[in-house]
């Protein structure tokens, strides 16, 4: 068998789709060779891993899980938390790019997406944020279903979290977490980066805390107890010094006769087995040899290919906005206008300062992680330590705390038409505050113990970084097909900073950071900006120019095949409350694309809840 380059194989498959008359409705001859499973799941990210595990708990049902990527299971680069950035633009990344963003000086930014067992949870930054209670309460109000509320989803967080409290945190710190907000018997390990008192990396904790105090950011014992505002100890999907991914948490080591997992298996189309019906029960995929394989589901085909590839797969199958399909020469099976629309993303921005020995000799020397990246004599012993005992500096990612903040109540933006008119635009559950309620943040600041910038590190020196995200953006973008090459990477357009709100919030967050890093606790370390002159007093134009040149387009996208209440207007969304694609049978979507709103924080925890809840809904259908 000749090993075809993947893109060539995909093009061959595409020409086959375009020539195949079955697409427009003819009855296919029954293929005796087609393998049949109860469930065929496409993509082994969060949705795919959780569902494959939970559905195959029932020994009576058979499950096939298809994953486009390599396994990655035995790869240390995936396991070691510290080196996650080495996974970007590696064989475990789709290497996607965004379309040129007009509000970012037309720059073409990379858009990371995991391609391995575990999906993006195998390459991501392991930050675990559950969102404010208001995120879930808004979700419930929109769906008209209280089971989506903060109170309603606690049972799912209990199934997800295996919380590992720090063993010997320095006794001088106030409580680092709220134990009643966590479960210890779920699937995903959650832990803090609370160094033992003997460790050098504690140096950064006092300035992080006192600078916050100095500028009025309150200490929050636990940002994951429903009220994230303030500065809190960050929580990570790390257990025993190792990344805990959707794969390691839900499927690694699970051996069952009724579950089959196939890697290097890229679904290229879903289709009907019988021309007359609306049951999309067949999946065609390309294997590692470029061969097209056809499988069939007796119960459901479940798409869990993520925010980019789920809408792309739907569109390549003729299920999407008619205008996009027609432009790409794909026969329209069903016009579903919301496929690929409503794409929302966080806008991010990193900033870096250098630090040096403190003038006040009672302060600790700043031991930053720059040396781990720049000096093998520092890195290698840490690697040995990690291999030996899963301890040392590679068990963390240079972060320890997270700050969530809000635009003040007296800010001019609240008078802006764009904001004040929101309540009239979106149904009774909408209001003017994009965070929906005052417990919801508008932005996030994460302090890192090393160089943090889109520009590569100078390779020496000691640094501290702050990365910002606008956590409840209002800009809306889209994912569409490349019309001349529909199997090539989709066109991913977050429409970054399209709204006055997003631009205002990012400016506000940056000014807040400039004030924070100008607090005496940081100045004691001779903190010096590594970016062009920008001060708290800089005008909007100067800050905006800085943003256009330095912001990047997030990694938390959702909503490209979003869920809506049963009563929502036709065409406004894609899936029903039971995750079934509206208007067709046998096809469900359980991933970031189905999530109706941008998670107000990082996306992973929200997706675990969505997947666990979907598993309950699907299984309750089996019981009936
Ligand atoms: C670089 C990066 C850093 C991030 N950092 C954080 C963080 O610190 N905290 C946080 O909460 N969130 C973070 N996120 C976001 C979070 O990881 C994602 O939102 C989440 O993993 C998406 O889950 P998903 O199941 O929707 O899709 P994915 O995790 O993307 O999984 C989709 C899977 O489907 C597979 N697939 C796609 N197409 C096909 C096909 N046609 N056939 C077969 N298989 C297919 C893919 O290979 C992949 O394995 C980060 C994301 C990235 C990319
Ligand atoms: C992404 O790009 C890198 C660097 O060019 C390459 O090594 C890797 O194989 C690419 N990833 C995939 C999935 O093709
Ligand atoms: C701790 O968490 C519980 C459960 O979420 C919550 O009810 C309680 O208010 C929290 N306590 C503090 C001090 O935050
Ligand atoms: C702390 O840093 C000093 C100076 O770099 C080093 O000698 C010492 O071993 C470090 N201690 C720990 C616990 O890492
Ligand atoms: C030096 O730092 C210590 C510890 O933070 C503090 O108590 C002391 O006041 C500082 N001294 C000066 C001169 O700033
Ligand atoms: C943590 O990892 C080490 C090294 O692989 C192993 O020996 C130990 O058993 C693990 N501990 C737990 C609690 O899993
Ligand atoms: C908002 O109030 C703060 C103090 O309460 C004040 O410093 C600031 O100038 C006010 N901002 C506006 C835009 O009025
Ligand atoms: C579509 O894909 C082709 C082939 O990869 C590429 O040359 C072209 O630039 C893409 N079009 C767009 C708009 O990205
Ligand atoms: C916002 O997006 C719309 C639709 O793409 C576009 O017409 C408009 O020019 C954009 N405005 C800004 C300020 O980016
Ligand atoms: C730091 O604060 C001082 C006043 O205390 C101010 O003059 C200076 O401009 C500030 N620096 C920055 C970078 O904002």
TrEMBL record:
Keyword Manganese: no
SUPFAM superfamilies: FAD-linked reductases, C-terminal domain, FAD/NAD(P)-binding domain
EC number(s) given by UniProt: 1.1.99.29
Keywords: FAD, Flavoprotein, Secreted
PROSITE patterns attached to this UniProt entry: GMC_OXRED_1
GO molecular function, one term: pyranose dehydrogenase (acceptor) activity
Subunit structure: Monomer.
Protein name: pyranose dehydrogenase (acceptor)
Organism listed in the record: Ephemerocybe angulata
Lineage: Eukaryota, Fungi, Dikarya, Basidiomycota, Agaricomycotina
